[in-house]
Amino acid sequence: MTREDILDAAAQVFRQKGFHGASMSAIADAVHLQKASLYHHVTSKQEILLALLDRALVMLIDYIREIASQPLPADERLRLMIRGYLKALTDNSDLTSVLLFEHRSLDKKSHARHVPQRDKFENLWRDVLDEGVRTKVFNCKDTGMAVRALMGVMNWTLTWYHPEGGKSIDEIADGYADMLFHGLLK
């Protein structure tokens, strides 16, 4: 039994029960350990939560940074980033659900440690939007607000998307990109 196995199981338990509804016993049961044995690997649910949030953000930052650094126009990169982000969310739904819906359960000290990583991730998006504004590809007065709006739309997808549904994740991503780039007006 490794720490990674415990984190994988904890992500699933947190997604199913929520952070506050999950117990260390449930996590121990999920990895077939006695509760006391679990404490040889981790000290608390709070430690597990922070480790999961760190894991999710590192994965997403690495993935999105690779797309954002491609030598393409800002609109093409942003479309690829939207596609990549939605794919990463849905391919890692236990982990990313914890990131999106359980971060509010961090204690103050852990929250303070988490926020710079979250900001680093958001800045990858803001940098591409800012470049698009500088190169006159985008007309956006507040790129910070645009990033938060886009994140909200994409993050909420995790609550309703089903792979067997009517649209693929790429079709949904392209729909979001088209709506962002062209708006709703005729």
Descriptors:
mainly alpha; elongated; Tetracycline Repressor, domain 2; 9 helices; 186 residues; 74% helix
Bin the helical content: over 70%
| The CATH homology group name | Tetracycline Repressor, domain 2
| Major sheet size, sense and barrel closure | none
One letter per element, helices H and strands E, the order comes to: HHHHHHHHH
List low-confidence stretches.
none
Number of H/I helices: 9
Short description:
Helix content is 74%, strand content 0%.
How would you describe this structure to a colleague?
- With 186 residues, the protein is mainly α.
- The chain has a single domain (52-182), classed as Tetracycline Repressor, domain 2 (Orthogonal Bundle).
- The protein has 9 helices and no strands.
